Amino acid sequence: MKIAIPVDDKSMETSVCQSFGRAPYFLIYDKESKESTFLDNSAVASQGGAGIKAAQTIVDNQVSALLTPRCGENAANVLKAANIEIYKTVNDSIKDNINAFIDRKISLLDDIHAGFHNHGGK
């Protein structure tokens, strides 16, 4: 099973990014092999639709779960259509969130916001 986390840098020591669609990178963590891969988020500089484009990147990488502080409605719809569960991060630590997910001590994200359409903001 693969999980994805929006992150600020290509390092396991970096923080979870507070913006899903505009995160500079995504960490893809394979729960079975314990391998980590960092992907550039090509949607980061998009004029609009960054969340949808970012969600499609997650779908294309066969991820089963997304761990994020927040997620917009349009991105959430793309993820849910692909049967990807969205969980709320517990803090800014990548390792803490991975461990919380593995230990089943993380909650589903139920506060899906309307999004920041065409604002590119946080």
Walkthrough of the structure:
With 122 residues, the protein is of the alpha/beta class. The chain contains 3 helices and 5 strands. The protein has helices at 50-60, 73-81, 94-102; strands spanning 2-7, 25-30, 36-40, 65-68, 85-88. The chain has a 5-stranded mixed β-sheet with strand order 3-2-1-4-5, with helices on both faces. α1 runs parallel beside α2. It is globular and about 35 Å long. The N and C termini lie far apart (29 Å). Residues 118-122 have low confidence and may be disordered.
What is this structure, in a nutshell?
This protein is of the alpha/beta class. The protein is built from three helices and five strands, in the order E-E-E-H-E-H-E-H.
Please tag this protein with its features.
single chain; 122 residues; alpha/beta; five-stranded mixed beta sheet; 3 helices; 5 strands; globular; disordered C terminus
Per DSSP, the total helix count is 3
Spans of at least 5 consecutive residues whose pLDDT stays below 50 are: 118-122
Structural class: alpha/beta
Percent helix among the residues? Answer: 10-25%
User: Mean pLDDT, nearest integer?
Assistant: 92
Quaternary structure? single chain
The count of β-strands is 5
Pattern of helices and strands: EEEHEHEH
